Amino acid sequence: MADANALINDLSRHVQENDIESGKITLTKLKIWMLEIPSGSQAPLPSITLAANALELGALLSVADDDLDAFARNLSQLKPYYSAMGTNSTTDRKCHVLGLNLMHLLVDNRLSEFHAELELLSEKEAGTSYVSFPITLERQLMVGSYDEVLNAKSNVPDPSYQFFMENLLETVRDSIADCVEVSYKSMKLTDAVTMMKFESTAELREYVQEKREDWIVEGDQLTFQPPPTGSKAVDIPSMNLIAQSLSYATELERIV
């Protein structure tokens, strides 16, 4: 137990210093120690709490490493320890990690899982800034308040949320772009930068080059190509078809 506490302190320091590789090594040692914890009701609460702390730090480490697969693994390993701790015990980082998990589900558009996780939260947990932030974002996305979602980037409850916000902002920008190109024939680059919350016209040009090859940039103007449309009723040669049908009917009548 004393060795595990020392490892937790080391892992916490690695996370704070963003020393990812050293953190991974320490986390592996802690997970080996966790195999020695008795299962079921025989597991002592201090060991369970220590294991939960280790996996929470592991989740934060995986976010710093931009590794969503590792983040998901740490969360799946962490949940049984939360259940074993019960409602009367908690950790300092629980709401932080649960909030990051909600951000992960929101970015992946796994809304059914998002709402299932909300059902498991206590009122106190849902009221913390870590958890209320993704809840508010989800509501804004549902009503199409994209401008508020984009502005939320500067109000994250912790720097670790920035990774998920960057991914979410890309999704929101794509949605705005889809709306813009069917609503306008053209607009000034500066207006597009403001509307899509880019920092500069250079960022907008890079976005157009990577994702919107059909947009045309000419000077300070951005022109949108009209989306492809299917055939309209006026495009169908109706009179020709009627004439052909009458001709077939006449020939059929002669044969009979």
Query: Strand share of the residues?
Result: under 5%
Our measurement of the CA-to-CA distance between the termini, rounded to an integer number of angstroms, reads 100 Å
Estimate the global geometry from the Cα principal axes: elongated
How many H/I helices? 13
What can you tell me about this protein's structure?
The longest helix has 22 residues. It is built from 13 helices and three strands; from the N terminus they run ααααααααααβααββα. It is mainly alpha-helical and 256 residues long. α1 packs parallel to α3, α3 runs antiparallel to α4 and α5 runs parallel beside α10. β2 and β3 form a beta hairpin.
Which labels suit this protein?
elongated; 256 residues; 3-stranded antiparallel β-sheet; mainly alpha
Summarize the structure.
68% of the residues lie in helices and 4% in strands. It is mainly α.
Please specify the SSE layout and strand pairing.
Blueprint: H1 2-16, H2 20-34, H3 45-64, H4 68-85, H5 94-107, H6 111-119, H7 123-126, H8 129-142, H9 146-151, H10 162-183, E1 186-188, H11 189-195, H12 201-211, E2 216-218, E3 221-223, H13 238-255
Antiparallel strand pairs: 1-3, 2-3
Helix pairs in contact: 1-2, 1-3, 2-3, 3-4, 5-8, 5-10
